[in-house]
Amino acid sequence: MARPKRPPSDTRKIFGERVRTERYARQLTLEDLAEKASMNWSYIAQIERGERNISIDNMTALADGLGVPLRDLL
Amino acid sequence: MARPKRPPSDTRKIFGERVRTERYARQLTLEDLAEKASMNWSYIAQIERGERNISIDNMTALADGLGVPLRDLL
Fold first, then answer.
1. Looking at residue B7, what is its pLDDT?
2. Structurally, what CATH architecture does the domain formed by A10-73 represent?
3. Could you give the ipTM of this predicted complex?
């Protein structure tokens, strides 16, 4: 797509912070959540820091792994 | 990541339907929204049909283009 690049969204950072907050609230390690969400723990660490442009399917897997509605992470 | 593949999430479909609903409510064409969101119109058409695993940055751009909070599209 020949469109100008947008900077990373603030939403990434908000999403990552909420994932971490909910993970801590459930006393889950990155490895625990990785297992529940069928995802790599180091990828989740990057998400929590807002470093990755996560997809809707992976956002859904994290929300499901945490047991919260996805909209509550945004 | 050597993990089993997950099927496409239902969230994709819900997100796409809500984008279309909000776009219609504002009487915007795909081209109008594409312009506002700095995105290709054919990509938005695929999103509305739930065919693409859209990223959080593109979800944010669509929500901003529609003028709705992202959480309202989920």
1. 76
2. Orthogonal Bundle (1.10)
3. 0.88
Could you tell me the two tokens for B30?
């795909």
pLDDT tens profile A10-67: 999 999 999 999 999 999 999 999 999 999 999 999 999 999 999 999 999 999 999 9
Tell me how far apart the terminal alpha carbons of chain A are, to the nearest angstrom: 27
Selected for mutation to probe chain A from B56, B60, B71, B72 (highest A CB count within 10 Å) is B56
Cβ atoms of residues A28 and A21 within 8 Å: no
Region class of B27: left (phi > 0), else alpha (psi between -120 and 50), else beta? left
State the nearest Cα–Cα gap between A21 and chain B, in angstroms.
18
From CA B24, how far away is CA B64, in angstroms rounded?
A: 15
